[in-house]
Amino acid sequence: NPLPDVSNVNEILPPTLSIYPNPSHGEFTVQGTGNLTILNMMGQTIFQKGINGETTIVLPAGIYIAKLGNSIQKIVVQ
Predict the structure, then answer these.
(1) Which of 26, 53, 57, 73 is most open to solvent, judged by the fewest CB atoms within 10 Å of its CB?
(2) Contact 57, 38 (CB under 8 A)
(3) Cα–Cα distance between 11 and 6 in angstroms, integer?
(4) Residues 47-78: pLDDT tens digits?
(5) If 0-12 CB within 10 Å is exposed, 13-18 middle and 19+ buried, where does residue 22 land?
(6) Are 36 and 50 a contacting pair, CB within 8 Å?
């Protein structure tokens, strides 16, 4: 059996978004590259910034959604 042609298959890339510590007590680090958007649970944009590497963000207690490229993660601030 010949091997399948995989020359045009996209590489599997690591996640583009890393958030730690999560949950946090207000301050957390976001790691990634691209346009970071953080939404509250009502869908309102509360933070937007282009990032390249690590950035530190401080938010009040609540639950948020972070979007960077095709990655989406929930952030819990206690």
Answers:
(1) 53
(2) yes
(3) 10
(4) 999 999 999 999 999 999 999 988 999 999 99
(5) middle
(6) yes
